[in-house]
Amino acid sequence: MMKYPLFLILSLLVNMLSAQKNDKKLEDKLKNEIQNFQGDIGIYVQHVRQNKYVAIQADTIFPTASIVKVPILVGVFQKIAEGQLQLNQSFRYDEKRVYGGSGLMQFYKDSAQTDLSTMISLMLTYSDNVSSLWLQELAGGGTGINPLLERLGLQQTKINSRTPGRKEIWKKYGWGQTTPKEMATLFLLIRNGQLIGQKYSDKMYRYLKNQFYNERSLSQIPPYINTISKTGSVNDARGEVVLVNAPSGDYVFCILTKNNKDQSWNDQNEAEVLTRKISNIIWNHFEPKQPFVPFESIK
């Protein structure tokens, strides 16, 4: 089981939150930016060293879309910690696993050999749906992962797809659900080595550093600054969670949307444009001595 007992994790979170102060200046900037957004949006921002936060609909439930792959990652590493899975463990791909959407594994040849580490990399770097569903299965499915999330104090973060008893909730939120605050908290637990154990948290951190989809929030942060992140997209929802190892200290933010009017699939989608603006506002707010004005996206 987890190296850190639930009471210790909860006490660390309580202490962390009790010392925080609302960053009113940043909150005002963000509220001004999102006021005309045609959809629902939730934002949570926390600067660890400065003990400052912003919470805008941060406890509201939103669809995760592919951000659900982070809870799946946690479930897989719990199995690794328990000795039920190994990163170098070999698996044989079956073309019956083909599933559309993002990713590369759907193009594998039938009976191709792969391993657990490659599957995790595909899930996080390329947001691969086939490997994600396979890993969800290996982690015990929603019935295995959801109780683990609850023990971490993440009561609203759930796997809905292929989880008994959650069909109606799946119809509403899709593959998974979370809140901006809970998903940001999950990233902080990984960053602080408080998830399962230090060595497991560190390995998860390394996987989350490699992102193919880097044209949203990451494009608004200097490329030489280390980050971990995950995006999620479905027709009427866009989301992203990012932890930044900034010069002033680590900060994390999660931006989730739903009921979006603009359901286009291009980089000018309203929610994606807004996400980039929010990321840039946050960076320049915390790093005024190192303002960053990104180049236009390369086509």
TrEMBL record:
<keyword id="KW-0732">Signal</keyword>
<dbReference type="GO" id="GO:0008800">
    <property type="term" value="F:beta-lactamase activity"/>
</dbReference>
<dbReference type="InterPro" id="IPR012338">
    <property type="entry name" value="Beta-lactam/transpept-like"/>
</dbReference>
<feature type="domain" description="Beta-lactamase class A catalytic">
    <location>
        <begin position="42"/>
        <end position="257"/>
    </location>
</feature>
<dbReference type="InterPro" id="IPR045155">
    <property type="entry name" value="Beta-lactam_cat"/>
</dbReference>
<feature type="signal peptide">
    <location>
        <begin position="1"/>
        <end position="21"/>
    </location>
</feature>
<dbReference type="GO" id="GO:0046677">
    <property type="term" value="P:response to antibiotic"/>
</dbReference>
<dbReference type="GO" id="GO:0030655">
    <property type="term" value="P:beta-lactam antibiotic catabolic process"/>
</dbReference>
<dbReference type="Pfam" id="PF13354">
    <property type="entry name" value="Beta-lactamase2"/>
</dbReference>
<dbReference type="InterPro" id="IPR000871">
    <property type="entry name" value="Beta-lactam_class-A"/>
</dbReference>
<comment type="similarity">
    <text>Belongs to the class-A beta-lactamase family.</text>
</comment>
<keyword id="KW-0378">Hydrolase</keyword>
<protein>
    <recommendedName>
        <fullName>beta-lactamase</fullName>
        <ecNumber>3.5.2.6</ecNumber>
    </recommendedName>
</protein>
